[in-house]
Design a protein that fits this description.
The complex is a heterodimer. Chain A is an alpha/beta fold. Helix content of chain A is 36%, strand content 24%. Classes of the chains: A alpha/beta, B mainly alpha.
């Protein structure tokens, strides 16, 4: 139990000649009180690649994403973004790194006092002061169209459905044209049809933008659809990492059990 | 092995202390949690204040949000503060007239009203009213944002939440409290004069001349500007309580309540210190 099978075959993407991963998680530990949430996790994601992190609820998947975006700090180990160890950076130093990252929260985390348009415009207003108001407005409408949102952009988040909120959250995450995209349970709480629409949207965006993406999910079908590689967590450790076929061929009991869903 | 069945060579059993019964020990045991929580709270708010201060003095400053908060704290509190000030003016007028009549000092009424309102009641009442309205509002708003991950989303968007949310609100409270206090004072003096005039006609000119006779700016400016310290207390406590919330809807309610209670308490305690400070520095 706990032996990690790291299958170095990756679907459709070659590791570049000596190219370092865009996101590198190295032997990261995180505990809350006496509960060891992450227990020596090591992962890497390259440009143009999507890694799905799977596991049962409470195995530290979302905590891992929060560590990568810098909302929390590991107890030990390192997390590098483009070769920079982010664990000891200040908020303002981390902000420079975050301008190249996008994060979709599990419940979208839209600003409820701002309209859909203002939510998507929020990062542009703060970080793209070179754009005129009309250029910003055009970019917002383009982003909303890109995520398939039509209709009145002046609606408030409380006036739109969960699926639409996820799309707005995704548009906001893409506003600064990130190189790294982190998605926390993008299909959680959605019906099967909406889930597949979100999956197809993520796949389309990934093909067009070639970002390094990490998707946390417990939806195996979603993971299989949108990712090049999967990593399965159990009790805070990576049990197996590789393609879906590699997971199917694994003889680890937990992996077999997880794939039965 | 001895006849009793016990191994004489075994390590001695660990003797755990039982319940302490000495009076001081009982008090110490009962209050350890409270005392450590007390120091932990002050330590945490100190760290929070330092993070806000650092964010406030580094660019880019959030001017747009500051202007929005100046409106939220200042103009939207004005009606309530004016009403409170007016009520205080009437109350002091009624009480002062009665007390001064008993001692044959009715001529002192204008000065009594002016000094009572401007030096004491105006600042404190303004502080407590704003603490209730603004403190609860900021505490609840930021707590709600915290539990719905909106503050995390701000930080993930490469924006410093201490700069955008906390520094702007605290600075707005610091800037607006003295102005609101002036408004409360003005309303209190007007209504106080009016209440007195209904009983014994007194022209406003006479009232002002008599009330401010021999007064200097030192008598009135420090009490008004000490409310900037009240603003710092209200903004800091409310932002701290809001941004550290945990626990969903219950946490939001607790943050709003604690913001008002703690800000009001510290405001009153600060007044004791500030009054002494003013009396020493501006004799």
């Amino acid at each position: 139990m706990g032996a990690v099978q790291t299958i170095s075959v990756m679907h459709g993407e070659q590791q570049g000649d000596g190219e370092a991963p865009v996101v590198a998680v190295d032997n990261v530990h995180r505990c809350f009180g006496t509960h060891n949430v992450l227990n020596g996790v090591t992962l890497g994601v390259n440009r143009g690649e999507t890694l799905a992190v799977l596991g049962r609820s409470g195995t530290g998947k979302s905590v891992l994403l929060r560590l990568i975006i810098g909302l929390d700090r590991p107890d030990s180990g390192s997390i590098s973004i483009h070769g920079v160890d982010i664990a000891r950076l200040t908020i303002d130093q981390m902000s420079e790194i975050r301008k190249r990252m996008g994060f979709l929260f599990q419940h979208a985390a839209l600003y409820d006092s701002l309209s859909v348009r203002e939510n998507v415009e929020f990062p542009l207003r703060h970080h793209r002061k070179d754009l005129s108001p009309s250029e910003r407005a055009d970019r917002v409408m383009h982003l909303l169209a890109e995520v398939g949102l039509v209709g009145d952009p002046n609606k408030m988040p409380s006036d739109i459905s969960g699926g639409m909120q996820k799309r707005v959250g995704l548009a906001r995450a893409l506003a600064l044209e990130p190189e790294i995209l982190l998605l926390d349970e993008p299909t959680a709480g959605l019906d099967p049809i909406s889930s597949r629409e979100i999956d197809n949207l993520i796949l389309k965006l990934q093909r067009e933008r070639q970002m390094a993406s990490i998707v946390v999910t417990h939806d195996m079908l979603s993971a299989r659809t949108i990712s090049n590689r999967l990593a399965l967590l159990d009790k805070g450790s990576v049990v197996i990492e590789g393609s879906f076929e590699d997971l199917e061929r694994s003889d680890i009991g937990f992996v077999k059990e997880f794939l039965k869903q | 092995m001895s006849s009793s069945g016990l191994d004489a060579n075994a390590a001695p059993r660990l003797q755990l202390p039982g319940v302490r019964t000495a009076p001081l020990a009982v008090i110490a045991d009962a209050t350890t949690g409270i005392v450590s929580d007390f120091f932990e709270w002050f330590g945490s708010i100190g760290i929070f204040f330092w993070q806000v201060l650092r964010a406030a003095v580094t660019s880019p400053f959030e001017w747009r949000e500051l202007i929005r908060q100046l409106d939220e704290v200042g103009s939207k509190s004005l009606p309530l503060v004016a009403l409170a000030g007016s009520a205080i003016g009437i109350v002091i007028s009624l009480e002062a007239r009665y007390s001064l009549s008993r001692f044959g000092a009715k001529s002192m009424f204008p000065a009594t009203l002016v000094y009572s309102v401007i030096q004491v009641m105006g600042p404190v009442i303004t502080g407590l009213v704003v603490s209730g309205r603004v403190g609860a509002g900021i505490g609840a708003e930021l707590a709600s944002m915290k539990v719905t991950e909106q503050i995390d989303a701000i930080e993930a968007s490469a924006i410093n939440p201490y700069r955008l949310l906390a520094a702007t609100r605290i600075l707005a409270c610091i800037l607006m409290l003295p102005l609101l206090t002036l408004a409360a004072d003005a309303c209190g003096l007007l209504t106080g004069w009016f209440a007195q005039s209904l009983v014994e006609p007194l022209s406003f000119h006479q009232f002002v001349e008599s009330g401010f006779k021999g007064a200097t700016f030192n008598a009135f400016l420090p009490p008004t500007f000490k409310t900037a310290v009240y603003g710092l207390i209200i903004g800091l406590v409310a932002c701290f309580q809001g941004m550290r919330t945990k626990g969903g809807a219950e946490g939001v309610g607790r943050a709003a309540t604690n913001s008002v209670v703690l800000a009001s308490l510290f405001l009153i305690l600060a007044d004791v210190v500030l009054v002494k400070f003013i009396l020493v520095v501006f004799p």
